Amino acid sequence: MMKINKEVMYKMVRAIASVREEEIGCDDCFEKVDTFVDLELAGKEAGEALPLVKDHLERCQNCREEYEALLTAVRAMSEK
Amino acid sequence: MEERTNQEWLDELRGPNKDQAIQDLREILIEGLGYALGDHHRENMDVLIEDFVQEALIKILDNLDSFRGESKLTTWAQKIAVRVAYSEFRRKRWEDVSIEQFIPEDSGTDFTPAILTDPDPTPEQVTTQDKLIQIIIRKVEEELTDRQRKAIYAVMFGEMPLQEVAKQMGTNRNALYKMIYDARKKLRESLLRDGLTPEEVLAAFEIS
């Protein structure tokens, strides 16, 4: 039996409240996330260049964790 | 290892002497994945990483034509290796969990939420939050399709990864995101019809 607590409801309400007309899905995000990472590591405003990717990364935990792992990898390799 | 431009990578990976380029890319991906998975502690991580990279390399070589050159080729390739690794970790972590278990038992009629876990809410807050929870749960029950409802419970209440929920529902991660997106929109519109802006509802749950 699931416990429906305040934290879970807050997350759900936030997901409802923040829905936008224009959102991209996981495939479109995956398509561009490498470009997003390279822009970021080049010191550019990745979020401004690719706002829908930024938005999706804020919403989707799976995509966000892969993005963070990719950023960690590419950053570490470029600092060698 | 020599630095290569994207074009040099592509030419070499497609050329007659591709073995060296593949070997160099393999080393980059193995090292990168080591950093990427630094927080994951598993037995035989080195072997796991080699397996992930091997699987990724097959996908990479099969999909070179889809590389559009907007990023560095090595970043693009690393993205594929990260996806392979995370997909496997999620599969392992969730393989014995069924999405069915996240459907509230009382689902259907007169659903009453469990007692709030806020350690110290004021009585007014409890009343407002409790009412709102009931309203939202009722909307989830009455206005969403069975599949939307199942997905919402598993992803939001069960915190299951989209990838695993999608698999159990016979769809894919992207389609599931879209299904949940449609559900979020429907719920938002329904709240608005009742004169409740989602922002107001959100404010009632803000930590005071």
Shape of chain B: elongated
Category from helices, strands and their pairing of chain A: mainly alpha
Oligomeric nature of the chains: heterodimer
Question: What is the string of helix and strand elements of chain B?
Answer: HHHHHHHHH
β content of chain A, as a range?
under 5%
What is the gyration radius of chain A calculated from CA atoms? 15 Å
User: Strand count, sense and closure of the main sheet of chain B?
Assistant: none
Largest sheet of chain A: none
Number of strands of chain B: 0
Spatial extent as radius of gyration of chain B: 24 Å
**How much helix, percentage-wise, in residues of chain A?**
over 70%
User: Please, what is the average pLDDT of chain A?
Assistant: 91
Structural class of chain B: mainly alpha
In percent terms, what proportion of residues of chain B is strand? under 5%
- DSSP summary: helix tally of chain B: 9
Q: Report how far apart the termini of chain A are.
A: 49 Å
Describe the structure.
The complex is a heterodimer of chains A (80) and B (208). With 80 residues, chain A is mainly α. Chain A is 74% helix and 0% strand. Chain A is built from five helices and no strands. Chain A has helices at 6-17, 26-41, 46-49, 51-59, 61-78. The mean pLDDT of chain A is 91. Chain B is mostly helical. Helices cover 66% and strands 0% of the residues of chain B. Chain B contains nine helices and no strands. Chain B has helices at residues 6-14, 18-36, 45-62, 73-94, 123-143, 146-157, 162-168, 173-193, 198-205. The longest helix of chain B has 22 residues, at 73-94.
Topology:
The complex is a heterodimer of chains A (80) and B (208).
Chain A: H1 6-17, H2 26-41, H3 46-49, H4 51-59, H5 61-78
Helix pairs in contact in A: 2-4, 2-5, 4-5
Chain B: H1 6-14, H2 18-36, H3 45-62, H4 73-94, H5 123-143, H6 146-157, H7 162-168, H8 173-193, H9 198-205
